[in-house]
């Protein structure tokens, strides 16, 4: 079967409009007169992104938040969404719609349209297109990192991984770890504040390591990450301990929806963020744990295949 990256590579062969940013960014950037429209689309599939017994309101939340997270990474303010929905069980559909209303209300975002089809009893796949207006131009891309920049991440990493494990093991779906998996927060305010002074920015959906490698590739430079610096929450550490292995997993599982950005070493940050590495000459990803060099793990993050 084609992998996600192989398929997107085929599309890159003809997605030549500058607004597509070479299919190398979190969103399309469409200049219209004096305005700049930011457009993104992400899907969620049953058994891939959510379990069949997941709360439909949580699925609605994550579908919206994961798309708004891509707008946040471009410093955009959201204006509306379009929903691609597959009908299934009636109670599920109604609970999803109620959850969708709540999450859109939370973010103050309009439902503008969409499309509805039957799933004929198959697994569901849901899509969402989110539209936003860039608050700052030029719109940050993944490609602007410069040698000497510091690499930062907002929030903590790995909480969604731990939350997923707890839910999968049948524990109560309450508490900060389950919330991190079910109801990620799009870092919209942070993205808008950061946009004017970052050199590069993206969100972390597939894992810090694979997403940082994508930023390095887009910027044609290298990125060095110090695993000892990765921010872990107290809840993550008490559930999964603080070891090199648990840090590596927090950096490569995904579903974090935090912002990853590069800023000059002398920049004074206007949001809470943790320095996790730096931009270096060369290419690709280099890992350290304090003073020690660490071999790259076989998989840097989540890839569909
Ligand atoms: N089916 C598709 N058709 C067109 N573009 C796609 C498709 N799938 C992914 N892309 C593009 O490839 C790039 C990388 O996608 P992805 O890794 O999913 O980004 P993100 O993590 O920000 O959602 C983005 O520019 C995205 O718009
Ligand atoms: C049932 C279930 N199993 C596994 C996962 C883990 N998982 C699935 S997709 C994914 C990465 C993010 O999804 P993707 O579609 O790659 O988002 P994008 O990069 O396009 O924003 C992760 C961590 C999950 N969320 N749910
Ligand atoms: Mg995507």
What report would you give on this structure?
With 305 residues, the chain is an alpha+beta fold. It folds into 2 domains: 4-134, PurM-like, N-terminal domain (60s Ribosomal Protein L30, Chain: A); 150-294, Phosphoribosyl-aminoimidazole Synthetase, Chain A, domain 2. Helix content is 31%, strand content 27%. The protein has 9 helices and 12 strands. It has helices at residues 4-12, 56-73, 90-107, 159-168, 176-182, 188-194, 208-219, 234-240, 244-250; strands at residues 28-32, 35-45, 76-87, 110-118, 125-134, 150-153, 200-204, 222-226, 258-263, 274-280, 284-289, 292-294. Strands 7-9-6-10-8-11-12 form a 7-stranded mixed beta sheet, sandwiched between helices. α2 packs parallel to α6. Bound molecules: adenosine-5'-diphosphate, thiamine diphosphate and magnesium ion (MG). Thiamine diphosphate is lined by residues 42, 47-51, 66, 164, 205-206, 253-255, 302.
Mean pLDDT: 96
Order of helices and strands: HEEHEHEEEHHHEHEHHEEEE
Biggest beta sheet attributes = 7 strands, mixed
Residues in β-strands, percent? 25-35%
Keywords:
305 residues, alpha+beta, 60s Ribosomal Protein L30, Chain: A, 2 domains, five-stranded mixed β-sheet, 9 helices, binds adenosine-5'-diphosphate, binds thiamine diphosphate, binds magnesium ion, PurM-like_C_sf
């Amino acid at each position: 079967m084609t992998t996600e990256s192989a398929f997107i590579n085929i599309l890159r062969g003809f997605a030549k409009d500058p607004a597509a940013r070479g299919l190398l960014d979190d969103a399309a950037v469409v200049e219209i007169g004096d305005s700049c429209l930011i457009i993104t689309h992400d899907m969620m599939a049953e058994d891939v992104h959510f379990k069949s017994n997941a709360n439909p309101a949580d699925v609605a939340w994550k579908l919206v938040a994961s798309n708004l997270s891509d707008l946040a990474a471009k410093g955009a303010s959201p204006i509306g969404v379009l929903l691609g929905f597959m009908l299934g069980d009636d109670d599920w559909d109604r609970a999803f719609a109620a959850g969708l209303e709540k999450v859109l209300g939370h973010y103050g975002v309009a439902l503008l349209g969409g499309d509805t089809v039957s799933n004929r009893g198959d697994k569901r796949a849901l899509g969402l297109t989110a539209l936003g207006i860039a608050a700052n131009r030029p719109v940050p891309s993944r490609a602007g990192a410069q040698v000497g920049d510091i690499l930062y991440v907002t929030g903590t990493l790995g909480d969604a991984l731990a939350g997923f494990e707890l839910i999968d093991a049948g524990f109560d779906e309450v508490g900060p770890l389950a919330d991190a998996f079910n109801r990620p927060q799009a870092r919209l305010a942070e993205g808008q504040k950061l946009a004017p002074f970052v050199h590069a920015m993206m969100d972390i959906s597939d894992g810090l390591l694979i997403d940082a490698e994508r930023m390095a590739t887009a910027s044609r430079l290298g990125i060095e990450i110090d695993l000892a610096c990765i921010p872990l929450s107290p809840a993550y550490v008490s559930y999964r301990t603080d070891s090199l292995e648990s840090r590596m997993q927090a950096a490569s599982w995904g579903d974090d929806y935090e912002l990853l950005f590069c800023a000059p070493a002398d920049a004074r940050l206007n949001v809470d963020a943790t320095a996790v590495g730096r931009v270096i000459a060369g290419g690709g990803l280099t890992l350290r744990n304090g003073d020690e060099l660490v071999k790259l793990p076989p998989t840097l993050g989540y890839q569909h295949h």
